[in-house]
Write a structure and sequence with these properties.
This protein is an alpha+beta fold and 154 residues long. The protein contains 3 helices and 7 strands; from the N terminus they run βαβββαβαββ.
């Protein structure tokens, strides 16, 4: 592994991540560009190949606040910590999540998000996330996502 990170990258070159999501959760290029304006986004590379993407949006800047989240200027909503399927199961997710937390911890006191069952919930729990409401059939995906909050400061 030779891991590097970028905080600025051509969005058009990141659309492979959208294929990792259920079709009901995918963004078009235009939607993704709009979402990432003002977002904190980190792309992870291994030996120059893109393997991961994590992005968070300030909760008080979103027009539509995700279910269960407050409009809090000191909280951020983590839209994703995604590893391309060919690279999953190798520890990349934990590395990327740690880098994301490190980046946002200086400016925010909580990370909110919705995690799907399995690896996503386990990953967030490993960093101390507390789980709340379960949202059945999240956006027609047939999966039950759970709201989580990850406190960053005591």
């Amino acid at each position: 592994m030779l891991i590097t990170f970028r905080f600025n990258y051509a969005i058009s070159r990141t659309m492979a991540f959208e294929k990792e999501y259920h079709r009901n959760l995918r963004f078009t290029l235009r939607e993704k560009r709009q979402l990432l304006k003002g977002a904190i986004t980190i792309w992870m590379f291994d030996r120059g190949k893109i393997v991961g993407e994590s992005c968070g949006v300030l909760l008080n800047r979103l027009a539509d606040i995700p279910e269960g989240c407050p409009r809090d200027p000191k909280s951020i909503y983590c839209y994703s910590t995604t590893i391309l399927s060919n690279y999953q199961g190798r520890g990349y997710g934990k590395i990327l999540k740690a880098v994301f937390i490190g980046r946002v911890a200086r400016d925010f006191h909580k990370i909110y998000g919705h995690a799907r069952p399995g690896a996503s919930q386990a990953l967030n729990k490993s960093f101390g996330a507390h789980f709340g409401t379960t949202y059945r059939d999240w956006y027609g995906t047939s999966e039950d996502y759970r709201l989580y909050v990850l406190p960053l400061h005591d």
